[in-house]
Amino acid sequence: MPAKIRLQRQGRKFQAIYSIVVADSRAPRDGKFIESLGQYNPNSNPATIVLDFNKALEWLQKGAQPTDTCRAILSYKGVLYKKHLLDGVKKGAFDEAEAEKRFQAWMTEKEQKVQAKKDQIKSTKDGLDKTRMEEETKIKEARAADIAKKKSELIAAEEAANAPAVEEEVEAEEPKAEEPKAEEPKAEEPKAEEAPVEEPKAEEPEAEEAPAEEPKAEEPKAEEAPAEEPKAEEPKKED
Question: In what order do the strands lie in the sheet with 65-66?
Answer without folding.
Answer: 48-51, 35-41, 15-24, 3-12, 65-66
